[in-house]
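During the reporting period the student researcher (J.K.) took over the structure-prediction task from the postdoctoral fellow and processed the backlog of single-chain submissions. One of the processed entries is reproduced below for the supervisory committee.
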Amino acid sequence: MANIKSQIKRNLQNEKARLRNKAVRSELKTRVKVAVTSAEAGDENTPEALRLAVKRIDKAAAKGVIHKNAAARKKSRLVKRIASLTNQG
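J.K. obtained the following structure tokens:
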């Protein structure tokens, strides 16, 4: 444990941020997974699930949880994957 007051405060701030970021990443993964399983099953609500997943990715990038290029890459791969799944069915 740090003895310096500012470092103790910084550690608390870092822990709060870590938990916040963890929640955002978890939600992001969940939305992506829902969109992919929806496309695999051939549900009619696949476009809505995809929209929500893309929205979460954009929000995570805006908050700085993930890098903007990582967000662009994730969106690109997700749309490509869902397009291939929906075209098969």
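The committee noted the following: The radius of gyration is 17 Å.
J.K. will present the remaining backlog at the next meeting.
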